[in-house]
Amino acid sequence: MTDSQRLAARVNEVSERELLERIFPRLAVLGSPILGPGDDAAVLAAPDGRVVVSTDTQTEGQDFRLTWPNGYRTAGADVGWKAAAQNLSDINAMGAVATGMVVSLTLPAETEVAWVEGLADGLVEAIVGLGAPGCTVAGGDLGLGGELSVTVTVLGSLEGRAPVLRSGARPGDVVAVAGKLGTAAAGLALLEHGPRYAGLGEEARGVIRAFCRPRPPLAAGPAAARAGATALMDLSDGLLKDGDRLGRASGVVLDLDPAVLAAHAALLAGPAAAVGAEPLRWVLGGGEDHGLLAAFPPSSHLPEGFTAIGSVVPPAGGPGGVAIGGRPAEPSGWDHFAR
Amino acid sequence: MTDSQRLAARVNEVSERELLERIFPRLAVLGSPILGPGDDAAVLAAPDGRVVVSTDTQTEGQDFRLTWPNGYRTAGADVGWKAAAQNLSDINAMGAVATGMVVSLTLPAETEVAWVEGLADGLVEAIVGLGAPGCTVAGGDLGLGGELSVTVTVLGSLEGRAPVLRSGARPGDVVAVAGKLGTAAAGLALLEHGPRYAGLGEEARGVIRAFCRPRPPLAAGPAAARAGATALMDLSDGLLKDGDRLGRASGVVLDLDPAVLAAHAALLAGPAAAVGAEPLRWVLGGGEDHGLLAAFPPSSHLPEGFTAIGSVVPPAGGPGGVAIGGRPAEPSGWDHFAR
């Protein structure tokens, strides 16, 4: 097969070995684990005798569309970036640093090899672009299936620290966030209901990029741990829903400041106007920005990347949860299994 | 919702939290990692400062059917068992011991909650039944999708030993196997082409069980490492194909003894007669038994569970591979991407 034929090839036109030989060299820029792809399993360093682990699947039709209603076509690199970013975010949310990932791909027979190569490039771009320099792609699995899906499992190191859980927030703590709020939801709304992608300006394209290639603040998780954060979690399902989880896990209420929420919403006025949406709903309920929600002890100096968004108050007899300006708020956001 | 309603429920009729609350208690029998499910990531011990990792996806329609042509209905517990067993086998094949796994499930909306509970039970049954006492289910991910798929990522400990790779076999070594050869392929043939399951006898049901619930010999991997095995791999794609991989990785030829192969084939005479198949083809080309293929130094005392099946010879100018009775053999077996 010549190189030009290969560029056009679909995955059922090449052997598994050929496909792997197209993928592995693209990952080599990341450096090497103790033992990389090619044997029955990989071996990674776990320098402090513990390993943090998280896994997440993205499925075509559920988590992304190959072609969106506004005409945007999802690149393989978008899917690879997002699969890596989501999982890197979970490691970040423990205050840990990623050490490596393994990737399992399920591919429809007609998937183009070039699209899969793009996916591998997207993994690398996210790892490099988001700042996870010690992270390698240590191995994976390839199989055919009716729908495209990508499962990434990422490992991380706590670097000798305790993991920062969801359960440690205490009344009097400062509630803070790092990263964007509602921007990915704005991007999703444009993809689903917005004007044609080809005619969009830079601001609109930017929020679409925030959905397709989220940017978890990977320096902020370890920084929060070093600064003594009492609780930390990934904002993947929306501020109110994730805030409710953190509040219940800690047995406290996170009381959010309406003025700060409004300031975040104001940043999304342009995209909101384009689709006739209320941007505060995106800030409160939009998922997949992969910022961090944290609690810090009273009068902490917040680490770089975090801004205060409220305070922790007692649960007032309930199980804990989230409030806005002192009023209990209904958690909303994503539930993959909601009716 | 009452308990009886819950038993009949489908996954889109319950919240993600309810579904997780039905699954987690079933996993608790396995003991606890440093940090288990419920936070952004789990934390497992990595006692020797390294961690072995492997990942594998099973997809409905590719790796299993919910209902087979012979009428056998795949239980959730079958899928859970096999997903765990396949991955435990990869850890075994490094000479390592499993310490934990994370599981990502993609479920069609109409999947019954009871089927998912069965899958969780199957994970536990495999971990306990195959003898992986230090292994926990540390976390996971749930999502909806058009087809059912299960990705397991398993972590393991080398217990201070070097990993046993595919690349260390040397001329003069003894080739040995642990576990079954061709039995899962016999089971697959009965599922696809055999008489109705309801009328089958115990021998036929046994080979179907070997396909649905493979039994990797988990004591044999670490035993091989302790005994000085020079090469070790999982037999997942068939003896000739996997043997060819090991031979090429080591730059040697694995010369298999035809009399031993015939003895393995004779064990499958009953199922072979039922579907008019040649059992030696199953022994040579059948995948998914998840036994081990190993090379040991000359005149080694083979560890328990291994039997000799041939010897390692020089590559005779070629890249290495596999032979039978001195004659080069064409590798066959599974290639998920073969035309």
Describe the structure.
The structure is a homodimer of 339-residue chains. Chain A is built from 11 helices and 12 strands. In chain A, strand 11 and strand 12 form a beta hairpin. The model of chain A has no long low-confidence stretch (mean pLDDT 93). The first copy, chain A, is of the alpha+beta class and 339 residues long. In chain A, helix 2 packs parallel to helix 4, helix 3 (76-92) runs parallel beside helix 4 (113-130) and helix 9 (258-266) packs across helix 11 (279-285). Chain A has 2 domains: 9-157, PurM-like, N-terminal domain (60s Ribosomal Protein L30, Chain: A, 2-Layer Sandwich), CATH 3.30.1330; 174-328, PurM-like C-terminal domain (Phosphoribosyl-aminoimidazole Synthetase, Chain A, domain 2, Alpha-Beta Complex). In chain A, strands 7-9-6-10-8-11-12 form a 7-stranded mixed beta sheet. In chain A, strands 2-5-3-4 form a 4-stranded mixed beta sheet, covered by helices on one side. At the A-B interface, strand 1, strand 2, helix 3, strand 3 and strand 4 of A face helix 2, strand 1, strand 2, helix 3 and strand 3 of B.
